[in-house]
Amino acid sequence: MVQETEFGTTIVGLVADGRVVLASDRRASVSGMVSSKRADKVFPVGDRAALAFTGAVGDAQALVPKLETEVRLYETRRNERMSIPALATFTANTMRENPLRVQHVLGGVDADGPHLYTFDAAGGVLDQPYAADGSGGPTAYGVLESEYDDGLSVAEARSVAARAVAAASERDLASGDGLNVAVVDGERVDLDRYDDPAAVAS
Q1: In terms of Cα–Cα distance, which of 64, 113, 58, 54 is closest to 90?
Q2: Cys-Cys link to 102, which of 17, 24, 55, 129 (CB 3.0-4.6 A)?
Q3: Catalytic: which of 9, 10, 118, 139?
Q4: Where does the sequence pass through the membrane (predicted)?
Q5: What are phi and psi of 89, to 5 degrees?
């Protein structure tokens, strides 16, 4: 969440026990200065998906309502729920047609189960069991690689995500000041905020 070409923050996502856990730190910075210690970087998209982002705040704030509007229009016109792969495809198409200064991880649960997607700047999409991004992403990936298991419970996945964010916050100047963590279960998105990742990581 820094200026123009930098993607300073830490976001992570994990699939666990039929659900998706997304997490981020809470620091926003501009030109090397901390501009906020209470930034929200994980947002619900409807009631069955959520998006964690790093990059320009304005672009993220434009993207999330666009995705929510598409979900509502799709479900109204077709009288059926929009699948998470369809939402990921729409997100990728949006990135191709109107490049935004964001990197993001999209997670959700539909009738086929949990899905977690990462995107590149050109709109490429990858479906993964766990992911990290942002300037703290490489450090966070180290934690995810060593601790992720497809048998994790949701509580364990929340703890792993918190440890990944905490580890990144120790090494990355653009990450820190707490934790946002969301659990998506196919019916709702539960979002919590903590001043210290240790509240969840233990």
Answers
A1: 64
A2: 55
A3: 9
A4: none
A5: -65, -45
- pTM exceeds 0.85, yes or no: yes
Q: Which two tokens stand for residue 22?
A: 């997304």
- CATH assignment, 11-201: 3.60.20.10
Give the model confidence (pLDDT) of 28-63 as tens digits. 887 778 888 899 999 999 999 999 999 888 888 889
> Is 10 a known active-site residue?
no
Q: Name the average pLDDT for the chain.
A: 91
First to last CA, the chain: 27
Q: Do the beta carbons of residue 147 and residue 14 sit within 8 Å?
A: no
Dmax of the chain from CA atoms? 48
CA 25 vs CA 96, 120, 150, 181: distances in Å: 27, 21, 24, 9
Q: Which contacts (CB < 8 Å, 24+ apart) does range 128-131 have? A: 129/14, 129/15, 130/12, 130/13, 130/14, 130/15, 131/12, 131/13, 131/105
34, amino acid identity: V
